[in-house]
Specification:
Elements (H helix, E strand, L loop, with lengths): L4 H10 L6 H22 L30 H7 L3 E2 L2 E2 L7
Antiparallel strand pairs: 1-2
């Protein structure tokens, strides 16, 4: 699919981009090259290729899930003006 200068100007206007008259032909050629590359990539048979999440066989190392801090909720709630059932009570700000 080849784009011409008028189509590039229309796309630029819709995208609110300013492309000068001198650059319009260059942009049209570049977009045409990109679309040709996409067509070439879509024509490749990929039926026998398995989808993969990562091109390398990388394994993510995970740390051990262990507790590193103790629970200080009761201590912090003694500092709060009002609490109820383990929750902080605050004044209503939206009616």
């Amino acid at each position: 699919m080849a784009l011409d200068k008028s189509e590039v100007e229309k796309i630029a206007q819709l995208a609110r981009l300013h492309i000068s008259e001198a650059d319009a032909d260059e942009v049209a050629n570049r977009i045409t090259d990109i679309l040709a590359l996409i067509d070439q990539m879509q024509s490749i048979d990929t039926e026998s290729v398995e989808p993969m999440a990562h091109p390398l066989d990388a394994v993510q190392r995970l740390r051990v899930d262990e507790i590193t801090e103790s629970d200080h909720r009761d201590e912090f709630q003694t500092l709060a003006p009002e609490t109820q059932d383990g929750l902080y009570l605050v004044p209503k700000v939206i009616e």
